[in-house]
From TrEMBL:
This is ZSWM7 protein. Pfam families: SWIM. GO terms for cellular component: Shu complex. Residues 76-114 form the SWIM-type domain. The lineage of its organism: Eukaryota, Metazoa, Chordata, Craniata, Vertebrata.
Length: 140
């Protein structure tokens, strides 16, 4: 996980990862704490994980990004290394208004990592560059 999250959030994600490694059980045990720490992003993020909407995109050089198919059908790129998502909710709710720690997409990335539920996709360096540049073009 990334050190930009508060310690309590980091600890909860570590507990979820440990529980899934040991027993592969659901998040019911953690749902109250997830809702308490992450607020309204928790349930939609769990839905995204259940729908297997998170894909880890890797290139041969080791560069990694995550793509999350949002509930609207739009594909968002997330960067767990710097705690960032390209969705409008991240920009507004997290960065501008500071109302939430994360959007549902980046939380889904962290949860899918903890639960071992990420899909994997290996692409060429050029393909990964195109994915990253496509996001910039959408914003500009």
């Amino acid at each position: 996980m990334d050190s930009t999250l508060p310690a309590v959030a980091e600890e909860l994600l570590k507990e979820i990862k440990k529980a899934f490694q040991e027993t592969s059980h659901g998040t019911d045990t953690f749902s109250f704490r997830l809702k308490f720490i992450f607020g309204p992003s928790a349930v939609p993020a769990l839905d995204l994980v259940d729908q297997r909407s998170v894909t880890r995109v890797m290139s041969p050089s080791g560069r990694t990004a995550y793509q999350v198919l949002g509930s609207s059908g739009k594909l968002y790129t997330c960067y767990s290394s710097c705690h960032f998502c390209t969705c409008p909710a991240f920009g507004f709710t997290v960065l501008q208004k500071s109302e939430s720690l994360l959007c549902k997409h980046i939380l889904a990335v962290y949860l899918s990592q903890a639960m071992g539920a990420c899909q994997e996709l290996t692409v060429s360096e050029e393909q990964l560059t195109s994915i990253l540049l496509a996001e910039e073009e959408d914003e500009g």
